[in-house]
Amino acid sequence: MMALLAELGRFVLDRLARLGRANLFLLQLLRALSFLFGRPGLLVKQLHAVGVLSLPIILVSGLFVGMVLGLQGYANLVDFGATSSLGTVVALSLIRELGPVLTALLYAGRAGSALTAEIGLMRATEQLASMQMMAVDPFPRVLAPRFLAGCIAVPLLTGIFTATGILGGYLVAVVQLGVDGGSFWAQMQAKVQLFADVANGVLIKSAVFGLVANWIALFEGYQAEPTSEGVSLATTRTVVDTSLAVLGLDFLLTALMFGEW
Amino acid sequence: MLAISTRLNTALPCDDPLVTVHRLSFSRGEHRIFREVDLAIPRGKVTAIMGPSGTGKTTLLRLIGGQIRPDAGRIEVDGICVHQLDRKDLYQLRKRMGVLFQSGALFTDLSVFDNVAFPLREHTRLPEPLIRTLVLMKLEAVGLRGAHALMPAQLSGGMARRVALARAIALDPMMILYDEPFAGQDPISMSVLVQLIRTLNDALGLTSIIVSHDVKETAAIADYLYLISDGQVVEHGTPEDLSRSASPWVDQFMHALPDGPMSFHYPAPPYDTDLLAGTPT
């Protein structure tokens, strides 16, 4: 019994220590951001790596998610003669929930895991150590550009995912199933609000998810054991932890933004 | 038990060393790596720190470079106590040190040229044409000017280490730390590196510290040798002194003899007990 309690205590202390290290890591990252004013080229390069190269998966996923929403929405609304509301259903689902959440999950799988593996391998191959021995701090030079680029990329990718999803919903509903195009767009325009929906969902939620996803990815990479097994474990942890954090935070943010309690 | 040299801690090789290690102790968890070690690295010379694998030679380099802090003792580089510096001053000191890592540690997303230019671009405001000239000069010194456009993945192990060497001398440091520079090299690459280290040391007026267990190659270019084992300096002297040492341990190490005080086997229970036990002990 005592051994079990001791084990539990060790586990909790270990987790708390890790959380403390993660917070210190975030502070160091935020402090290092000012360095990028003098080196915008570093940011642009990383924006390409985490943002532009994530576009294919975001575009394809957004299109299919929107098409599925169009099909499912139509199948349910047609019984009530409410297919004219399909545009609203598709848009609100994407803007409030699916856009930010799915983009963050896809980002964690595509770019977050790549960031962890890249930083973990830089550690394993002594690239970060050699940088430090050349009197160059890896925080501003390596980590901060990746962090800021990721934080900028996720909201932009969310916007693109959402827009593509709405287009997918339009293709299925209007072009394929014959819903009236005018009412599809008019209902959407009438019901979707700029601040309550777009700003909360596409901007605030995705900004929070972007910060968390990139923080976890870089922290896991930086803390990874410098072995192939260590990097592999860190990459897995990035995807799992980011997914859980995004889903948990989504509930919290949804309750704060849209809950009536 | 190792025979500790009677000269230990008493007869260091110079009066004005560039690096001084005084009563250094360092542990990793329960494992004690160094016990009150004393070293003095003379200026302008090639000094080798040698010993069997796992004796903490690389750890010693990391201690000298300020990457880790000792549990006790002092490490001074050019009169400055390394582990008492704050980060800003430590980085200033590191600008005067070059390190050649065992793996080369080239940045894989940068070309050979950009790797060598990296410290110049980070620490100087030199115009790009001048940086180009300097980089090509450094690459010429290691015989790889023609490879400046290649990426690290396109280099052989020996070439990667030579590029890393060019990068290490980019800022004209006062000393270079070499971590196992000959490990895993083919004979030609090895002899090229051996020659390069000596030539660069003499031509640029550097102080070189080589950590290695390649006895023949290292002894061929070193002015002074330290042999480390079991957390202590076992012997030190010129290569000629050590090759004539009366210590059986030094004799075994310097002449790569299979039999001697250093056992081939890791400490273990008796062989027959282990085999008959049925399960690993």
Low-confidence stretches of chain A: none
Q: Measured on Cα atoms, how large is the radius of gyration of chain B?
A: 20 Å
Structural class of chain B: alpha/beta
The overall average pLDDT of chain B, rounded, is 85
* Largest sheet, strands/sense/barrel of chain B: 6 strands, mixed
CA distance, first residue to last residue of chain B: 25 Å
Helix-strand pattern of chain A, N to C? HHHHHHHHH
Low-pLDDT runs of 5+ residues of chain B are 1-10
Topology as H/E string of chain B?
Answer: EEEHEEHEHHHEHEHEEHHH
- Provide a count of the helices of chain A: 9
Oligomer: heterodimer
CA-based shape of chain A: elongated
Mean pLDDT of chain A: 93
β-strand number of chain A: 0
The figure for the number of domains of chain A is 1
Q: What is the overall silhouette of chain B?
A: globular
Q: Tell me the β content of chain B.
A: 15-25%
Question: What are the salient characteristics of this protein?
Answer:
heterodimer; A: 261 residues; mainly alpha; 85% helix; B: 281 residues; alpha/beta; 23% strand; disordered N terminus
Description:
- The complex is a heterodimer of chains A (261) and B (281).
- By secondary structure, chain A is mainly alpha-helical.
- Chain A has one domain.
- Helix content of chain A is 85%, strand content 0%.
- The longest helix of chain A is centred in the middle third of the chain and has 39 residues, at 86-124.
- The radius of gyration of chain A is 21 Å and the shape is elongated.
- The two termini of chain A are 42 Å apart.
- The mean pLDDT of chain A is 93.
- By secondary structure, chain B is of the alpha/beta class.
- Helix content of chain B is 35%, strand content 23%.
- In chain B, the strands form two sheets. Chain B has a six-stranded mixed beta sheet with strand order 6-7-8-3-9-10, sandwiched between helices.
- In chain B, strand 9 (224-229) and strand 10 (232-237) form a beta hairpin.
- Chain B is globular, with a radius of gyration of 20 Å.
- Chain B starts with 16 loop residues before the first strand and ends with a helix.
- The model of chain B is unreliable at 1-10 (pLDDT under 50).
- The chains are: A mainly alpha (261), B alpha/beta (281).
- The A-B interface holds A 125-127, 129-137, 141 and B 65, 67, 91-92, 94-95, 97, 99, 101-103, 105-108, 118-119, 122-123, 164, 167, 171.
